[in-house]
Design a protein that fits this description.
This protein starts with a strand and ends with a helix. It is built from nine helices and five strands; from the N terminus they run βββαββαααααααα. Strand 1 and strand 2 form a beta hairpin. The protein has a five-stranded mixed β-barrel. The chain has three domains: about 60 residues, OB fold (Dihydrolipoamide Acetyltransferase, E2P); about 60 residues, DNA polymerase, domain 1 (Orthogonal Bundle); about 50 residues, Helicase, Ruva Protein, domain 3 (Orthogonal Bundle). It has about 200 residues and is of the alpha+beta class. Keywords: ATP-binding, Cytoplasm, DNA damage, DNA recombination, DNA repair, DNA-binding, Helicase, Hydrolase, Nucleotide-binding. Belongs to the RuvA family. One of its GO terms (biological process) is DNA repair.
């Protein structure tokens, strides 16, 4: 089992990154938040989880151990596979998932594409005693990443450029999500980055 991968960031995409390790490029499937923290040519170390199938070996990379553990834990619930587990972490941080399960918050879980009301109820029932109480992670991060109203544009723009988009494309995406940011009490950079990626994918 490959517990983590450390190497030079050789490529970044919308859903994966390639780390060069000993002359070999390893593709890691990651959430947008994880990818946004990577820079081409820079050294990176990501905790990983390997999913073995009859016809494939897939590596998933994470920003930290808490994300990795949550990815593996939610897959113990019926009907949750690697793709859905990754989608859950793309939409919500681990701490948000803990709170949702602990408080029977079906609405938060159904915000994840692929999870309906019955699926959310099943996940809550099966994970309630295993997922841990909110705040139980060693370094539990806040549920959202906020920034000042004057700084979110630069952060989102930098994240998009780091993912390989041109500065001009990034600027257009930032303009597209500006109305969404204006409706937030405090801009949520992670959410705005996901919205910008969706805007670019539709362009």
């Amino acid at each position: 089992m490959i517990a983590f991968v450390r190497g030079r960031v050789a490529a970044v995409g919308l859903t994966s990154t390639v780390l060069e390790v000993g002359g070999v490029g390893l593709e890691l499937h990651c959430t947008p938040d994880t990818i946004a923290g990577l820079r081409l040519g820079a050294e990176a170390s990501l905790p990983t989880s390997m999913v073995v199938r009859e016809d494939s070996l897939t590596l998933f990379g994470f920003a930290d151990e808490d994300e990795k553990q949550m990815f593996e834990l939610v897959q113990t619930a019926s009907g949750v596979g690697p793709k859905l587990a990754q989608a859950m972490l793309a939409v919500h941080r681990p701490e948000t998932l803990r709170r949702a399960v602990a408080s029977d918050d079906v609405k938060t879980l159904t915000a994840v594409p692929g999870i309906g009301v019955k699926g959310a109820q099943r996940i809550i029932l099966e994970l309630r005693d295993r997922i841990g109480a909110p705040g139980s992670a060693p370094d539990a991060a806040p549920a959202t990443t906020t920034a000042s109203s004057a700084g979110w544009q630069a952060q989102v723009q930098a994240g998009l450029v780091g993912l390989g988009w041109s500065a001009k494309e990034a600027d257009r995406a930032v303009e597209a999500v500006a109305p969404e940011a204006d409706q937030m009490p405090s801009p949520d950079v992670a959410r705005l980055l996901r919205s910008a990626l969706r805007a670019l994918s539709k362009a």
